[in-house]
Design goal:
about 80 residues; alpha+beta; AsnC family transcriptional regulator; Dimeric_a/b-barrel; Tscrpt_reg_AsnC/Lrp_C
Length: about 80
């Protein structure tokens, strides 16, 4: 399994709707955080090794209504 973190910038007033959609519709979601800074949410996804990350983000995340922008980070090793 691969751990992927995605920072999400939402349209104004849409953070809670986007977070609810992610929790309800993306079964690969491990955690969803409201964060400060340039982005509104950060999600941790647990994807299969053979999953095409770019296609998953493009097809499943960026198409969620209320999302303006995403920034994807790949985790290589968990130390704890």
């Amino acid at each position: 399994m691969k751990n992927i973190f995605v920072q999400i910038k939402c349209e104004l007033g849409k953070v809670y709707e986007v977070a609810e959609h992610i929790v309800d519709q993306l079964e690969e979601t491990e955690e969803v955080y409201s964060i400060s800074g340039a982005f509104d949410l950060m999600i941790k996804l647990h994807l299969e090794e053979d999953e095409d990350i770019g296609r998953y983000i493009n097809d499943r995340v960026q198409t969620i209504p209320g999302i303006k922008d995403t920034f994807t980070l790949m985790a290589y090793k968990a130390f704890k």
